[in-house]
Amino acid sequence: MPDQIPDKQPHLVLQNTSEAKPFKAHSPKGGTKATLPQLDRAQHGAALRGQLQALQPLADTARQRQEELGLEAGLGLQIQFVSRPDAELAFERLAAEGKGKGIELLSVQERENKAVLANVFVPHGQLQHFERLVTEYLEEKTDRNGNPRDNKKLLNTIGSIRAAAIQGLWTDSPDLLPANHEEAFWWEVWVRRGRDADVSAVDDFRRLAAMSQCQVSDAVVDFPERSVVVMYGSQQQLSQSVMALNCVAELRRAKDTAEFFVGMGGAEQQQWSADLMVRLQPPGAGDEVPRVCLLDSGVNRSHPLLAPLMDPADLHTVNAVWGTDDMANHGTGLAGLVGYGDMHAALASNGPIAVSHRIESVKLTPNQGANVGDDKHHARLFLDGVTTPEAQFGQRRRVFSSAVTASDYRDFGRPSAWSSTVDSLASDDIGEGAFPRLFVLSAGNTNDRAHWAQYPNSLSLNLVHDPGQSWNALTVGAFTEKTAITEPGAAHFTPVAASGALSPFTSSSSGWNERAWPLKPDVVFEGGNAATDGVNTDNFASLELLTTNNRPLARFFWTTNATSAASALCSRMAAQIMAAYPALRPETVRALIVNSADWTEPMLQMYPPSGARRTKQEYATLVRHCGWGAPSLERALWSAGNSLSLVVEDVVHPYKKEGSVIKSRDMNFHSLPWPKEQLEALQNTQVEMRVTLSYFVEPNPSARGSSSKYHYPSHRLRFAVRRPLETVEDFQARINAAAMREEAGRAAPPADSNWVLGENFRHRGSLHQDIWRGNAADLASRGFIAVYPSNGWWRTRPAQERYDLPAKYSLIITIRAPETIVDLYTPIAQQVAAQVAVPVVVNT
Fold it and tell me: What is the pTM of this model?
């Protein structure tokens, strides 16, 4: 029977800020093409002949200019053949490289209207080759054997013939080509090499580009038929020279790396910084704007890209002797990532850069630098670092971000004074004057170069560093998508990690006591890569993240990497969520980030199943190395067209005192606004439900064990989902039995095999997530979730008189059904509006 009915509804937020969108249906592959209308041979042939003849004056002018300039590469003209809509252009027949013709097919691409465009280089005098094809087409000539020689298979599919244009040479994503033709940017130019591999048109292209005031890099990469250079200029400048386009096989947007910007001189860096400053849309300065408070080596606010995001009064220190400046070039670099993310993306873009949050800094380390060793006073320093800005600026909404860690990992998940201080500060939001706090910590780095060479086995040997074992903090590891090494002379080096795999710098919780301590890290963000030549392993700027330098008078940009960089990026995401949803609790922000994460395919390949299906133990191993994967801000902020998320913020009273005995008190039983009819209609369609439960515990650290009455956490919460055909009464009875088993230290019996982790693995720490996978009809009857308590020291240590305290929690439920066209969002939105979701508090 219910012990009590709450007098208010929990905070239920529908995490979809866009209109409901039904899933997109995909047409079957290999569909038949529309039948082309019949052509009037004479009319079509005459049109093609006229277009070829119109190109002849351009070819003659190009030859004259080429000879005047003394260009060394082959003379000729580049032309484009465009197919008729829905026609399969016989582009192979356009090339005629033999018999001295030298006609080269450069590129083929399909346009949005399904037309195919083929770029062809035609040497001087060889336009007549195509004119002859048209003539044979019109006259229906035959070869010496009497067979038709009308070239109908080629010419019937050609819609038009024209001179080369930039849009036709562009083989990158159309969105990357600026709509403004006067906008300058960095191009990747693929220059043709022609029949003689020793003769490249690069020198000619450099001269012609310079005449159009475009800048071409000295560096060049040669392939058998192409040479690749990088050029800075606009479409308007490049299009001034037909001859320059004649040298080009393809045009793409250059992929910027940090090395590109770091390699610049100070004056060039200043220009890029000034351009970004013009486009910057800084946040407001009021206390309502969320802050990321960096607990690190200090920040040099004099950097022009950081000054708009920081006030002078937001620079603090835990030791006045140390000052507030960053002498280690660590905190300033993290501040750049907190504000702008990996900065090469912001610098290479052309649009406005909006920043939704501000930055505070507390100098937590002395001037010899960050991560210099295990300081026995760090628990006290950390406490002072957190409370110093709060004492001055009250209850600003903050994300506390720290990449300062111990130099070793001797705790093996066991709480330390430092990590327990973090947990205490996070949970200290009860009573007047309390501050809700969210902490983002780096997991700690693998710094030994010899270990990088042993990747990925080294990841299981280098464990999360203190205080990353904190239960309440969001602990961040590193993965990487950086694999392009652009430094001169580094061609013999290859990346250690594949794109999407874990960074060689990250650490794991492999080897921790599986039943006692949390699964860490929680998530991973970009942390850069290392490279090896087979003997040596090293760092390269192109494999790192670009950020702000602590001495802007000398250099504006520098690079950073590893879990420090990853934690800064995670803190940025947390602040962006706070800016979008100001009322959310810190527990909810933490849950949203983890709930939005996904494993990449390389992560899954690093920890493959032993059989056809990965076991729950193997999934736990995956989480201990990769966390729950790489988060997505978009998924965290709203549901996409093929997914939806519900966020419940609530409170439960886990314990009560009856006489002299402390007992479990309540569980919250949530009846969710489930789209039952829509799910049942999907039948065997595979769907995924992800459940995330986030709460903060009050720590009680000691060396008295982890499963006795001297529990480390104040309380534990669990979640359970109703099974098919299970009545509400049976559901409640099963949860009560599960709570009693856990109190007795007995493992859960075999349960629902559709969960990735299952009950024996998911309930670690104070952040619990699991994924259910199955068919939609099975999911339809599971629309009830219970949140219930398990043992903690609030119950087992009655002398502390904490047993009657409430416990806040955040619960996120997400459905993903990628293959369906049924709209799951609308029925849930209607039920939420009608307040159908009513939790029941049940005596346990």
Answer: 0.77
